[in-house]
Amino acid sequence: MKQLRIGVLLGLFAAAGVLSWSGARLWDSFGTLPRVPVAAPIVLAVIAAVLAATAFSLRARLRAQRERRPGAKGVDPLLAARAVVFAQASALVAALVAGAYGGVGVFLLTLGLDDPARRDQAIYAGSSVVAGACVVAAAFFMERVCRLPEDDDESGGATRA
Questions:
Q1: Where are the beta strands (DSSP E) in 12-92?
Q2: Which of 58, 63, 102, 128 has its CB 3.0 to 4.6 Å from that of 40, i.e. a possible disulfide?
Q3: How far is CA 67 from CA 57, 72, 77, 134, 143, in A?
């Protein structure tokens, strides 16, 4: 399984932001801009909290297992792999969503924040970007927690005959 790369996530964020900004400009020229949902930053924050809680739980269980504490619950490798896949998928989606709301937020900022409704929409969009960054940070933490120790074998994991 490949690790997340910050460059890929930043590229997704930027591409989604540019597309969203241009789409918001186009949409606004035809009528009213669709609203940024209040639930967007809340959902992203919940995903970040779930990822962080899972990572802290797995870290504690792995530490207890490594120190051979009596009664320590082991971590199923398949569970750890699923947690990492969930973290990676969440980070990719969060980068896209944060980029989309970031593009809308930039568009709203260029229009000005004199109108209270647009100001609220810009706040929701900015909060979504921050919450998306928290999801990405939690995903990197999950990857770090579930990383396997480096193999000393130079053959790339091939079995010896």
A1: none
A2: 128
A3: 15, 9, 18, 30, 21
